[in-house]
Amino acid sequence: MPAEEGLFLDLRSGAAPAEEIARLFPPPAYFTACVDGAGIPDKAALMEALAAAFGFPAYFGRNWDALLDCLRSLPGEIPARGYVLAVRNSGSFLSSSPGDLEDFADIAGEARSFLKDKFKAALVVVLL
Fold it and tell me: Quick one: fold of 8-127?
């Protein structure tokens, strides 16, 4: 999967993933948004899930450019030292659309670099 190294953290084999997320990314310093990969087969479902999980504004355009803008704007909306997207049932995440998975990885990687450079904030996608 293309994207910046360290963007994806695979905790699927862990016994207690929720506790591991809390240990690695303790609240309130880190904001954790959770989505269910089983309900995200494609880009349209991804946009809806991320909008709900991160509380994107009503004008969110539900396209890749809008997603990048909203991810880059997280520190202004949700002040935190970092942001975690926890994906339950990650084996099903964007399973019917491999191209969308690649695009998401690219966008998340771009957002991660921006947040790190401008805000010294982390962005990690945790696969559960």
Answer: Barnase; Chain D (3.30.370)
